[in-house]
Amino acid sequence: MGVIDFHAHILPGADHGSHSVNTSLVQLDIAKKHGIDRIVATPHFYPHKHDIEVFLQRRALAVSRIAEHLNESSPKIAVGSEVMLCIGLERFSRLDELTIGNSNTLLIEPPPNDFSEEYISTVAVLKEQGYNLILAHADRYSAASVERFLSEGVKLQINASALCTLVKNRAVYDWIRRGQVVALGSDIHGSNKRAYRELNMAIRHLGTEYERIFKVTEGIWNSFKTI
């Protein structure tokens, strides 16, 4: 069946997830050893801080630097971004260049403490524009806030670490039961072996629920261009 890591910071120099090609290669080696065969690279993009041209050039350079080290046994990589949601994002002229693997799927990260209705209105317009929106690490936010995104048709990505705690997050398991979670992610930064151990632990813990999630994740993945 394989394992898809839907949220990883593995591109060298693209953001603070990996500062060198060597770190990225260590990350990929850890992933491979843990059975991860597909990875979505999601460097942070902050519309209020980053120049889009500079970001895209930096990301392209990172891709070229890592691509020359990939071989048939390496995990497949789809390149995207983790886009900070901001009011008016629907008017961002080059938003399609931030989607994953040249598809219509956009991984969005809301501001940590502001879920005003203006943000929800932006999400509604993005959906009307045809974007498949997935909320990054939904486990970090209040259930009430996530439910507002769900009401607009946004789906959820959960970090594996949220499923490896002694105390269960009831909201996360409710979203899984309802079919709202479409992907798991390691959210790996640096050469942290724990990130992929937790991804495997989460998969074992979910059992048949993971099989259902994986089928959805794979369906989304199949629309991606990879390197």
CATH class: Alpha Beta
Spell the H/E element sequence: EHEEHEEEHEHEHEHH
Distance between the termini: 20 Å
CATH architecture: Alpha-Beta Barrel
Task: Characterize the overall form.
Answer: globular
| Helix amount | 25-40%
CATH topology description: TIM Barrel
Largest sheet: 6 strands, parallel
User: Which runs of at least 5 residues are low in confidence (pLDDT < 50)?
Assistant: none
Strand content: 15-25%
Q: Count the beta strands.
A: 9
Rg (CA only)? 16 Å
The number of helical elements comes to: 7
CATH homologous superfamily designation: Metal-dependent hydrolases
Strand order of the largest sheet: 3-5-6-7-8-9
What's this entry about, in short?
With 227 residues, the protein is α/β, with parallel strands linked by helices. Helices cover 37% and strands 16% of the residues.
Characterization of this structure:
With about 230 residues, the chain is α/β, with parallel strands linked by helices. The chain has one domain: TIM Barrel (Alpha-Beta Barrel), CATH 3.20.20. Helix content is about 35%, strand content about 15%. It has a 6-stranded parallel β-sheet with strand order 3-5-6-7-8-9. The chain has a 3-stranded parallel β-sheet with strand order 1-2-4, covered by helices on one side. Helix 1 links the parallel strand 1 and strand 2. Helix 6 packs across helix 7. The protein starts with a strand and ends in a 6-residue tail after the last helix. The model has no long low-confidence stretch (mean pLDDT about 95).
